[in-house]
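Lecture notes, unit on protein representations.

Consider one protein chain, 116 amino acids long.
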Amino acid sequence: MGEHNNTGTRGEDLAVDFLERNGYEILRRNFKCRRYEIDIIAMRGDWLLFIEVKTRSNLEYGTPEEFVLTEQSKRIMQAAEEFIFTTNWQGHIRFDIISVAIGEYTEVIHFEDAIN
């Protein structure tokens, strides 16, 4: 596994820890639907959350959340539709981003309702 994958996995682990400490239940990690993937599917109250985790060890080229592209957002929404359909979810949904910066200091920031 390459350095990039190690950084991404570490970021997802930190995001899961952050979510669990803040009262979220993790339903799935790395949910795959055809070519699409959602990093974390979580639940809190009557909200189902689809969460994209972006991790960077170097902020020279921008913050992690700046790397969620429009095309990627569309793929996340398509995978979410599949999950909603197969589970017959009838409640609220939200698309979030968790930004993880790993370096001298580790920072986890949760952006709610960040993907439209």
